Amino acid sequence: MMPAQVAAPDGVLLILALMLPSIGLLAIFVLGHSRPERIALPVLAANLAVALIVALQVGHSGQAATYRLGGWLPPLGITLRADGLSAALIAMAALILFVVAIYARGNFASKAGGSESRQPMVFWTLLLGLSTALNTVFLAQDLFSLFVALELLTFSAVPLVCLEGSRETLRAALRYLLFALAGSVLYLIGVALLYGAYGTLDIASLHQVTRADRATSIALGLMIAGLMAKAALFPLHLWLPPAHAGAPAPASAVLSALVVKAPFFLILRLWFDVAPQPQPVIAGTMLAALGAASILVCSVLALRQARLKLMVAYSTVAQVGYLFLVFPLVMGSEAAVPWASIGWTGGVLQLVSHAFAKASMFLAAGLIAEAMGHDRIDDLGGAAEAVPISIAAFALAGLSLMGLPPAGGFVAKVMLLTAAVVSANWWIAATILAGGLLAAGYVFRVIGRAFADPAGGAPPPKAVARSRELAVLSLAGVALLLGFLPLQPFAYLGIGQGGMP
Amino acid sequence: MSLLVDLVLVALILMAAVWTVLVRDRRDAVIAFIVLGLLLSLVWMRLYAVDVALTEAAVGGGATGLVLLRACARLLPVEAEGRLPGPGTQIAAGLLSAIAAAGLAAVVLSPPVPYPSLAALAAENIHQVGLGNPVTAVLLAYRSLDTLLEKVVLVLAVIGVWALTPDAFWGGAPGSLKSKHASGALDLLARVLPPFGIVVGIYLVWNGADHPGGTFQGGTVLAAMWLLMMMADLADPPEIRLKRLRRLVVFGPAVFIAAGFAGIFMSGWFLSYPPDYAKPIIVAVEAALALSIAVILGLLVAGPAAEPPKR
Amino acid sequence: MSAPTLYGLCAAALVGIGLFGLILHPTPLRKVISFNLVGCGAFLFFGIAARRGAGAGFAGDPIPQALVITGIVVAFAATALAVALILRMLEAGASTVDAKPLPPDDLSP
């Protein structure tokens, strides 16, 4: 157990992924600058560069990149590790955060020469906080470090919800915080039990030793239940719509696209990398049933919303529901390893394509509301003329939610559907189809209203910056490009999975 | 005999816990919770975890209790207690909680044999960091990433609390902590205690390298002294726009991160320490962290700004 | 029964009592206090893991002890944030009693 003092580590970029945004937020805090975006944007650009280089390196070497903090080997020390999946996800998060930051200059750019003001300072520091948190969630290999990462996520996300400071957003933020804290503490109890059972919290070490016994089941059950509350899985979804709808548009985009994905990612890790295999069928079926309930209930609720942002927020709960369909689909597949199955691949692709589509949709909703002065869906007449690019982005992102070609969501949903049919999970197949129809309903409702004639007496729409509209369109474009991926498992996502190098 | 002490302690804890949840008045609930915190720090002593006992007494019971008590003082006249849910919900909640507790109890009653532990590994490597206190070795060496990220959490918490400042007050000072019932005793305490408290705080940090104690414990004692002075009106809560204040908050985390990067050049890995200099580096990082923690804890208790900045 | 086992059962009870309070109480401050109770239980589980793992000349495994110290501080920060939110809501004139979810239409700008 000597700390390996040998050879310069090549995974030092992984450290930068954690430290760059942290340093950035400390810098904004300490400088009390009147223009925090001038620090945040370059930091997020550097973060994107780091993430892309890591992703390319992993693809090039065909191996996971690892880094041992302080040189200490697990189980004593903590390891960071980017396998194919983690590398893809940090790149996804960094790209979305960067584009959101470009867009958010329109909301939170401060006046030159003024003193520091509240909203910009809080927004930009917390956006960097989210970047650190997400990178840690995707890279850390230690269950307790992941607990700290979840807390980083909570502390960055909650104040963003009530940035505006109205009564309703404060209430939404408090409810979000209580759910998140309850989730954290359940997760933490599970961590304590696992340590008591195995004497290690390192995921790769646990992978070797976990047994199917009572302590392990209870520990994992508590952890997954806590993470479900954080991922807003039905029936623990009540906090999400008011929180995501109440936040300013760029914050909503990050919360819906990225923050709810982090707990799901951890469930995926616990399920496939920590839990003893094979998992009980009933557990997978239960998760999928809750996912199906999320899809159906919240798609119907989305259809019935009067406000655009609430509609988009309900759609998030529904789209996150699809992710939980993965578990029985992988169990029912004949693939030798989960990541070689189309069910698993479809789930990951759903995660990524929804992230781009939903970020684009929330940002578009923000611009539509800015231009029209409100976000009542019924009164959106004339929006297509006022903000045509935003409406186009909204429609393109909508394709992904519906699962229509050509869109990332199409490929994802076809893979999930195929996996459901192959494994004879007919109820899952039916849910996927019904969810697509409902999504079509709520997306076309908005598009239809946007092309209607403006109501008489409505104030003329305000102009919005073209660069912001293009930022929104670029995210929808990525969601669209993902639709050209082949309908099969990707070797890239399998790199370094299952304890392989 | 010794088990009797444990039994009595557990009985008292369970009474305090039940009282905390069931008592009608919220102030009584907070007081029961503070008592629980003190009892728990005794439990940590019984479990031979002196470092945790110090932290639990200072942060878990002390600082948390103070925050909750302040909240009660401001909530009391305004807010109703709210009505409890109907018997159906109560029974369901009770059942769910009982099932959870029973499951956990079952896990406790069947520990694995032999019991897994990293104590041996921790002992084997401790000479490389030159420390006598294994808990400090874990916090500042083996698992230093957790400690570093947790400092970022604390800074984010300060930002999150400040974010709740009404726009007109941004940059101003938090509301006075002066208690309504000014008492001579508090005033005397606030005048006499701080010099000793500061010495004790510094001692705890310094001592923490080899004996129980460390950054949190030391930092909390320092924070307590500051809060005491603010409560006795000997010091005002600082304006949140002050550069000096911001520097104090960031100082510890910045030193820690700098030490981390220096580790890459000195001994190959982020947050590694060259064996010959490990102890002085760690003690320096701890001192910087203790200072920042003291300020952060004080700011978290003081809350968001409640008045506009002075010209 | 050994002391760690006894305290382990105590931890299980604390979690149960805290969860009950978390579900039972409609007011957010009481929910926050209950959350802290569950947290105390969680920390105690680390405590018994530490004590049962005593060895190599240590009276307890230092790793879980260190984890608890980190956990206690994070829980305090969470409590401070939650309390600040509750008080801010009060200033904004919102009832903090968690009665019914607001009808969604009330939420927009």
Describe this structure in words.
- The complex is a heterotrimer of chains A (501), B (311) and C (109).
- Chain A is mainly alpha-helical and 501 residues long.
- Chain A has a domain at 280-501.
- Chain A is built from 21 helices and two strands.
- Chain A has a two-stranded antiparallel ribbon with strand order 1-2.
- Residues 1-8 of chain A have low confidence and may be disordered.
- Chain B has 311 residues and is mainly α.
- Chain B folds into two domains: 1-79; 117-302, no CATH class.
- Chain C has 109 residues and is mainly alpha-helical.
- Chain C has a single domain (3-92), classed as Helix Hairpins (Orthogonal Bundle).
- Helices cover 71% and strands 0% of the residues of chain C.
- The longest helix of chain C is centred in the C-terminal third of the chain and has 30 residues, at 62-91.
- Chain C is elongated, with a radius of gyration of 19 Å.
- Chains in contact: A-B, A-C, B-C.
- Chains A and B meet through helix 1, helix 4, helix 5, helix 6 and helix 8 of A and helix 4, helix 5, helix 7 and helix 10 of B.
Secondary structure elements and their pairing?
The complex is a heterotrimer of chains A (501), B (311) and C (109).
Chain A: H1 12-31, H2 37-61, E1 65-68, E2 79-82, H3 84-108, H4 118-139, H5 143-161, H6 167-198, H7 203-209, H8 214-231, H9 240-246, H10 249-259, H11 261-274, H12 281-303, H13 308-323, H14 326-331, H15 342-372, H16 383-386, H17 388-402, H18 408-422, H19 426-450, H20 466-481, H21 491-494
Antiparallel strand pairs in A: 1-2
Helix pairs in contact in A: 1-2, 1-4, 2-3, 2-4, 3-4, 3-10, 3-15, 3-20, 4-5, 5-6, 5-10, 6-8, 6-9, 7-11, 8-11, 9-10, 9-13, 10-15, 12-13, 12-19, 13-15, 13-19, 15-17, 15-18, 15-20, 17-19, 17-20, 18-19
Chain B: H1 2-22, H2 26-46, H3 50-75, H4 87-109, H5 119-125, H6 134-142, H7 144-162, H8 184-207, H9 215-231, H10 243-267, H11 278-302
Helix pairs in contact in B: 1-2, 2-3, 3-9, 3-11, 6-7, 7-10, 7-11, 8-9, 9-11, 10-11
Chain C: H1 3-24, H2 28-52, H3 62-91
Helix pairs in contact in C: 1-2, 2-3
